[in-house]
From TrEMBL:
The lineage of its organism: Bacteria, Bacillati, Chloroflexota, Anaerolineae, Anaerolineales. Residues 5-161 form the DUF7000 domain. It holds the Pfam family DUF7000. It comes from the Bacteria. This is DUF7000 domain-containing protein.
Length: 166
């Protein structure tokens, strides 16, 4: 990457075109609507009060079933800006719980979902790519896919954790 000055010149040029603002605003509105939709449909789940907008690195909100919340775990629905992918992550309320469950999953040899290297992503234990090529021309289908795969991920994690001692 070049200097900050070069990067800012490119940023200015791209901002003057207007597409970045439109896309970013649209993405934030979509993520907010998805969060609201899931919160209404699954009132028993713990859903974060606000959307984390990020620094154009990731945008996410938590969507956690009661059984995982009781263990200090969280589920995050994440849009990763660099890869342009939607992912679902198993995370935790704090670093100690994260380390505990990362170790438990590693010791059990559970490999249904990729374990996350803490040096590369200190916020997640497991991650699953929902879609690496989201179709923003069909938001209903995209939302249904995110919902379906997130619920399956939650169920898989809950089932696994019910078979091991924590």
């Amino acid at each position: 990457m070049g200097s900050l000055s070069d990067a800012m010149s490119e940023y200015r040029a791209q901002m003057q075109k207007g597409a970045i603002q439109q896309a970013y605003r649209g993405l934030m509105e979509y993520m907010s609507a998805l969060k609201t939709q899931l919160k209404a449909k699954y009132p028993e789940y713990q859903v974060s009060g606000s959307l984390y907008f990020g620094y154009m690195d990731m945008t996410y909100f938590s969507f956690t079933p009661p059984a995982l919340k009781d263990k200090g775990l969280k589920i995050a629905i994440v849009f990763v800006h660099e890869t342009f992918a939607f992912e679902v992550w198993l995370s935790a309320a704090n670093r100690a719980v994260l380390a505990q469950y990362a170790q438990l999953i590693e010791d059990a040899g559970w490999e249904k979902y990729p374990r996350v290297d803490a040096a590369q992503n200190p916020d997640a234990i497991l991650e699953h790519t929902i879609t690496a090529d989201p179709d923003f021309s069909n938001l209903l289908a995209l939302s249904a896919q995110i919902e379906r795969e997130t619920l399956a991920f939650c169920a898989d994690v809950e089932t696994f954790l019910s078979t091991v001692r924590d």
